Amino acid sequence: MTTIYYPLAWCCRTALTALLLAGLTPAHAQPAPKNPKPVPSKTAHEPDRADSLALRKLFDEALLRGESYDNLRYLTGTIGARLSGSPQAQQAVEWAKATMEKAGFDRVYLQEVMVPHWVRGAKERGEIVGNKDKGIKVPVCALGGSVGTNGKLKAGVVEVHSLDEVKKLPEAAVKGKFVFYNRPFNDALIEPGLAYGGAVDQRALGAIEAAKRGAVGALVRSMTSARDDNPHTGAMRYAENVPKVPGAALSTNAANQLSQLLKANPELQFELELECVTLPDEKSYNVVGEIKGTKFPQEIITVGGHLDSWDLAQGAHDDGTGVVQSMEALRLLRAAGFKPERTVRAVLFMNEENGVRGGNEYARLASQNKETHLAAIESDGGGFTPRGFNVEAEPGVVSSLAKWAPLLRPYHAADITVGHAGTDIEPLRAAVHPKALIGYDCDSQRYFDLHHSAADTFDKVNRRELELGGASMASLIYLLSKYGL
C-alpha cells in the first residue's frame, strides 16, 4: 500500500524526525543493521510524498481562490444558451479566447469548423384533444433538428415502448398518426447514465421508424427519471429516402397523462405546433489554450468540454461546468507554480450536442499535424461531487492509472474504472491513437433531472463541487505530465 502524507501527518512526521536527530531515540530502539537490505526502487507510476503535497497545493488553490464558479456565472448569466450557429455561441467563443489569454497560457488559438444552425422558433404547443374537441395543453418541446409542423398538425396517437414495436404494428395502426414512444428510464439501474443509454434510441431514431410506417410525427417521453413538467430536448436524426416528420418531447408528467387518457379513449388526438427550421451551416470555432511541456513538448495531454449547449436554458451542467473546469485545470497548474513536462491543452469543443463537428475537426487536425497525444480527458457529465475517472484504454494502462488512486482518495476522486470517456474526444482514438481516453466522473444521480431542459441553470451548480472537479482534473494532468503512461 502506498502511504499518502496529509499536511497534519507530515507535520507530526517532521517533528518526530527532529526528535530523533536530537538524540532522543527511545531506549528500546534497535541500532540500524550494518548491511541493510536494498530498498526496491519506485516504478515510474507510483506516487511519492512530493506528489501528495503537490495535489494538496492544487486543491488549496481551487478551494480558496478558484475561478470556475465566477467564470460559469458569466458564461451562463451574461451569454446564456449557446446552440451551435447562434450569436450566443459566437459570443462564447470570443469570451473563452479572452479568458484563456488573460490566464496567461502560452498559446491561445481558434480552430475553424462549420456547424449546423437549427433554430427552435417562437412557438411550441402541444394539446391532447378528446371528445367534442375538448383539449388539455401539455408541455412539449421540439427535438433538436426537427422539421416544423407547417401550422397545426392534429392526428390520432398510437403508444409504443420500443422501435421494434413500431416495426411489428400493422400499417393501419400507424399510418396518419403520431407514434408516441413512452419507454421510461429503468430506475432499477444504479447509474442513471445506463438508464439514459437504454432509452435514448427512441429519441434519436423514433421519427425515422415512425415515418417508415406512414406516421405524421413522433412524440417522445423525455429522457429523465424526474416527474415534472419540463420537457427535455436532444438530438434526433433523419434518414435518406425516408420522409422527415416532426419530433417532439413530452414532459414525463405529460407522457403519463397521455398514456392514461389513451387507455380510456384510444381515439383521442394530439395537436402539435412547431416553428423550428434548419438554416445553412455557420462558421464557428473550437477554442484551444495551451501550456507547452518543458521536457516532452511533443507529447500532448488534452482536457476539454463542449462550449455549445441546448437552447432551453443556460447550459450550466451541460456543459458549462466542463468548459470552466477545463480552463481552470490549466490555470491551477500555473497558479500552483507547476511547469508541466508534457504539453497540456484545454480544448473547448463546438457542436457536441448536434453534430460533434468540433471533436471531429480537432482529431482531423491532430492527425494532419502528426501530433502525439498521450491522453485526452473530457468533462461532460455535470459539475457535481467528484468520484473519479472513467477510462478507455488497454488493461495495462488502466492499471497504471489506478496506482494513482491513493493520491486522489482524500479528495473523493479515486474511483478509476473502465467506462465511456467522452463524445468529443472519441474521434482521437482512430486519428492519433492516444494511450488513454479519460472521462471525469462525478455523482450523476441528479444530472438527468436537468439535462437538456429548462432546469439546467446556474443556480443548480454548487461552488465547492465545481471547484473540486477542476482540481481533480488538474491533479490527473499533473501526474500524467510527470510520469506519462
TrEMBL record:
Compartment(s) of residence: Endoplasmic reticulum; Golgi apparatus; Lysosome; Secreted
| One Gene Ontology cellular component | lysosome
Annotated region (Disordered), positions in chain = 27-50
Please, one GO biological process term? proteolysis
Q: Which GO terms describe its molecular function?
A: carboxypeptidase activity; metal ion binding; metallodipeptidase activity
Location of the Peptidase M28 domain: 286-468
Where is it mainly found?
endoplasmic reticulum
| Entry-linked InterPro entries | CPQ (IPR039866), Peptidase_M28 (IPR007484)
Q: What is this protein called?
A: Carboxypeptidase Q
